């Protein structure tokens, strides 16, 4: 499938798949979306320490921003990113996140995240560990390990199977009691699948270019 690097409206880059007319991040702003959905409405709810599962590691943007937050807040984070189809290293070289986040002193950290071996835990810093797992989402079988899930799969329009009740059951099982899942999505069918497996779902204001998003709680 053809892939192209594009700049989003906030100046940060992403990967676009023309055949699907789908991007790895919002074309209205990759960094803005990540900060709004995953940091403001997810990470900010938690104190130190915590464990995070990202569904769709992709370009590593969410992981990198989360690392920067761990530095700012002196927060200890154990981060697991799941990706079935890792991004090509040459594409990673074209991502301008360190520059756009005014974090050039941590550009080596962004590179380190992508150079670490798959399926092995790596100490990115004294406060941030990363495990990249190369697996399909339906293969996830964790039980009550994570405090927070960043659900950042490709959209329902192009891959509805990634937003099924089966997948959300695995997400629910993976969370600790009172864990939280955040996603940019706000479709009714997604909300129904979340509720069916036991989540309590709330609708929040979305990032730039998107009216709404979901946050789901595992209340047990």
Detailed description of the structure:
It is a single chain. This protein is an alpha/beta fold and 220 residues long. Helices cover 28% and strands 27% of the residues. It is built from 7 helices and 11 strands. It has helices at 30-40, 61-73, 89-92, 97-100, 107-115, 165-174, 188-197, and strands at residues 4-7, 13-17, 22-23, 50-55, 77-82, 121-123, 128-133, 146-151, 175-183, 200-205, 212-217. The strands form 2 sheets. The protein has an 8-stranded mixed beta sheet with strand order 6-7-5-4-8-9-11-10, sandwiched between helices. Strands 1-2-3 form a 3-stranded antiparallel beta sheet, with no helix packed on it. Strand 1 (4-7) and strand 2 form a beta hairpin. Helix 6 crosses helix 7. The longest helix is centred in the N-terminal third of the chain and has 13 residues, at 61-73. The protein is globular. The mean pLDDT is 95.
Outline the fold blueprint.
Elements: E1 4-7, E2 13-17, E3 22-23, H1 30-40, E4 50-55, H2 61-73, E5 77-82, H3 89-92, H4 97-100, H5 107-115, E6 121-123, E7 128-133, E8 146-151, H6 165-174, E9 175-183, H7 188-197, E10 200-205, E11 212-217
Parallel strand pairs: 4-5, 4-8, 5-7, 8-9
Antiparallel strand pairs: 1-2, 2-3, 6-7, 9-11, 10-11
